[in-house]
Amino acid sequence: MALQSLDIQARSATTTAVPGVRETLDVAKLIDISKCIGCKACQVACMQWNDLQGEIGHNHGDYQNPRDLNDTTWTLMRFYEVEPEPDRLEWLIRKDGCMHCADPGCLAACPAPGAIVRYSNGIVDFHQEHCIGCGYCITGCPFDIPRLSKKDEKAYKCTLCSDRVAVGLAPACVKTCPTGAITFGGKAEMIHYAGTRVADLRERGFTEAGLYDPPGVGGTHVLYVLQHADRPELYGLPKDPAISPLVELWKGAAKPLAIATMALVGLASLFHYVTKGPNAVSREIEKEIEHEEEEQA
């Protein structure tokens, strides 16, 4: 892969103009669930490359460990036993992590300038030095991905190995996958490859096989080939993810209204100060307070 630019295309809580001269490749990671064997090599590679040290887990009677994403587990293998048809048991395994939405809800919800950015190649990244730990990114994410750290009160998630991609390398999880279930490249190339995988699955009897690239968030830069694309909820994926209406309200009508209200309060306070002067305690009130203190003494 050619050297990738990390030009910032969008920043949270800012309208600063971004560079627009260079055109970079739109990248994507394609996860073919039908090829995944649940070995967790990707989960380990993610922790190794990002120098993450998770807590020692507990056995809950299944292969999923830890039970959920956390501030040091940015990618997690999830295991599902389902019956897509009566008397037909299937074991579905999905690599979970940030979807890197083209229209990221986390970025829209974040009130801290520059804490969340979207690069021109499509990767959505967190800059923890600007994070204020409010957790709004969690509310804004339709996939429930970011996690707050109890250690430093900052939000963390998969970076799609933006540091590796910036120097022309594939993400660590892609590099380590032993079955070729995870591939990486230009998004158009990944969609084309996914089409061949979907055709193969349909020939093998999975008539509803398809690509998961939800339009409700503008598409994503992490794509899935699913055997049952008509029912993504079997894999723990939302069927039609979109940015929360609360975020839309905050960024739409509520925010300008709140700013206008604060401005009116400020103007009213200034008007009161100019016409009435500063608040002062009269001599009579001072005497009354002194008299009460003497009585209490």
UniProtKB/TrEMBL annotation:
The keyword Signal does not apply. [4Fe-4S] cluster 2 binds at C46, C158, C161, C173. [4Fe-4S] cluster 3 binds at C98, C101, C106, C141. The keyword Iron applies. Binds 4 [4Fe-4S] clusters per subunit. One of its GO terms (biological process) is formate oxidation. GO terms for cellular component: plasma membrane. Gene3D superfamilies: 3.30.70.20, Single helix bin (1.20.5.480). [4Fe-4S] cluster 4 binds at C110, C131, C134, C137. Its main location: membrane. Its cofactor is [4Fe-4S] cluster. Keywords: 4Fe-4S, Cell membrane, Electron transport, Iron, Iron-sulfur, Membrane, Metal-binding, Repeat, Transmembrane, Transport. This is Formate dehydrogenase iron-sulfur subunit. The lineage of its organism: Bacteria, Pseudomonadati, Pseudomonadota, Gammaproteobacteria, Chromatiales.
